[in-house]
Design a protein that fits this description.
Order of helices and strands: EHEEEEEHHEHEHEEEHH
Shape: globular
Radius of gyration: 16 Å
Strand content: 15-25%
Number of helices: 7
Strand order of the largest sheet: 5-2-1-6-7-11-10
Structural class: alpha/beta
Mean pLDDT: 93
Oligomer: single chain
Helix content: 25-40%
Amino acid sequence: MPSALILIADGTEEMEFTITYDTLVRAGVACTSAFVSDEIREGDSGSYESNPPFVKGSRGIRILPDTYFSPQASTPEKYDLLVIPGGAKGAETISGNSPVQHLVREYIKAGKFVGMICAGSLAALTSGLEKQPITSHPSVRDQLKDAFEYSEESVVVSGKLITSRGPGTTFPFAFTLVELLLGKEKRAEVYGPMVFPKGTFV
């Protein structure tokens, strides 16, 4: 069974996180969400590994991650896919995290998939990835367009790096990840019971 590590931080875009997580689970991917903190929160108690706090998303929805982000527990030997969602504040925290940057490079080097969506694509820049096709939310385009071959396609696949634009492209993004991990047949199998409107492209 393929496995995926999906990062989350305060300010992460809820749709990009939950739709990706949910679609991967429907396809049989073992998913783990890991909280990337931007500070030491006062009043936290319990195990660092097993008791992360509720994350407040970009629209104020609270989500309970599965675990804290641990670089040692997040290596490409343990997962087939690393996902970095957007949301301005969350993407800033995740893309600015040095261990995350290292992991992005390690996943690519190991031939594992890395998915970034919306402002999460900033992690490609902060991780020092080579110039290649990429997309993102329009709000961060100017930060990426000189360092990468910028595209406005809904989903861009460049080797093991998969990028997408925002909340509205999350389903195509998630289904692309499913297809890369498990094939076109699994993508179609998951797509059908979700009952998208006729003509919807995902």
